């Protein structure tokens, strides 16, 4: 039988956030499953989705598999992704390269949690950016993962950033995270995709985000009015999830919100881009 100390330790790791959630250094867990070397510049298909840590739920696995089969995205940006400390069978079947950037370990459930980016090719470079500030109660930071890929246009690279912006903090801390991301992206002169859950649940947050996007010269993916209404929001707030792009052309008919997907409280966003070298 477990002794009293073991019982106390179990309760501590289950209910006390400071002991249950352990923050990590900036790192990635990576897997190469594809032999492709370039993404087709004329068809860059993107899926962005906050999956609310549902990726071990059978209904989520079914939804995810159907989306992959139907839309065949070249790039997948998932937020609130869980990775168990033991092997993941469904990830082994994903015929894509993937990079996972955890921002903490949940000791009680023995899982990592963070940002997951998958692509049909391996990234040339990758970089993790962790917020300097922590969200209250759980005392964990938010994280972004920057990856760079080779396009079929010779010598052209696509920079992507998969982000989850900090929540439950004052506007200044939200702005600090965005400014750090802006600095990381500002030196790239080629095509760029900035995607994720931006937690823009207030008009003030939305204004700060739009200021940064304008400085970077990026454009939001425009969803049809009936599609836009399906994007996750709090009451009458602006949408929380966005896809921004630069030095690319968006295929308007490709912008979709998959509202029939209910395995997460956020709906998957889809978009398709084309890159044409004008130099």
Number of helices in the DSSP assignment: 7
Classification by helices and strands: alpha+beta
Strand content: 25-35%
Share of residues in helices = 10-25%
The secondary-structure element order is HHEEEHEHEEEEEHEHEHEEEE
Topology readout:
Blueprint lengths: L3 H12 L1 H4 E3 L5 E3 L12 E7 L7 H14 L3 E10 L4 H4 L4 E10 L4 E9 L5 E6 L12 E8 L6 E8 L6 H15 L6 E6 L5 H14 L2 E2 L4 H4 L12 E6 L2 E2 L5 E2 L11 E6 L5
Parallel strand pairs: 3-4, 9-10
Antiparallel strand pairs: 1-5, 2-5, 3-15, 4-6, 5-6, 7-8, 8-9, 10-12, 11-12, 13-15, 14-15
Give your account of this protein's structure:
The chain is an alpha+beta fold and 279 residues long. The protein contains seven helices and 15 strands. The longest helix is centred in the middle third of the chain and has 15 residues, at 171-185. The protein starts with a helix and ends in a 5-residue tail after the last strand. The model is unreliable at 4-19 (pLDDT under 50).
The gist of it:
With 279 residues, this protein is of the alpha+beta class. The chain has helices spanning 4-15, 17-20, 58-71, 89-92, 171-185, 203-216, 225-228; strands at residues 21-23, 29-31, 44-50, 75-84, 97-106, 111-119, 125-130, 143-150, 157-164, 192-197, 219-220, 241-246, 249-250, 256-257, 269-274.
Write a concise keyword list for the protein shown above.
9-stranded mixed β-sheet; 279 residues; 6-stranded mixed β-sheet; 7 helices; alpha+beta
């Amino acid at each position: 039988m477990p002794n009293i100390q073991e019982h106390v330790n179990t309760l501590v790791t289950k209910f006390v956030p400071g002991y249950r959630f352990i923050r990590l250094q900036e790192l990635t867990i990576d897997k190469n499953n594809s032999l492709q070397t370039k993404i087709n510049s004329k068809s860059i298909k993107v899926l962005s989705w906050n999956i609310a840590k549902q990726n071990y739920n059978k209904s989520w696995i079914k939804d995810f598999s159907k989306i992959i089969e139907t839309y065949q995205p070249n790039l997948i940006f998932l937020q609130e992704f869980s990775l168990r400390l033991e092997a993941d069978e469904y990830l082994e079947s994903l015929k894509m390269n993937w990079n996972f950037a955890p921002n903490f370990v949940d000791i009680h459930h023995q899982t990592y949690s963070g940002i997951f980016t998958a692509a049909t090719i391996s990234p040339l470079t990758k970089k993790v950016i962790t917020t300097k500030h922590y969200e209250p109660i759980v005392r964990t930071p938010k994280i972004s993962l920057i990856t760079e890929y080779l396009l079929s246009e010779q010598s052209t690279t696509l920079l992507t950033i998969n982000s989850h912006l900090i929540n439950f903090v004052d506007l200044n801390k939200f702005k600090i995270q965005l400014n750090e991301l802006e600095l990381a992206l500002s030196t790239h002169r080629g095509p760029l995709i900035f995607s994720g859950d931006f937690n823009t649940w207030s008009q003030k947050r939305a204004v700060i985000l739009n200021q940064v996007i304008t400085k970077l010269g990026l454009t939001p993916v425009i969803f049809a009015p009936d599609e836009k209404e399906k994007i996750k929001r709090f009451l009458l707030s602006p949408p929380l999830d966005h896809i921004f792009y630069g030095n690319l052309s968006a295929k308007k008919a490709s912008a979709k919100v998959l509202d029939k997907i209910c395995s997460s409280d956020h709906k998957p966003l889809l978009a398709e881009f084309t890159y044409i070298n004008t130099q």
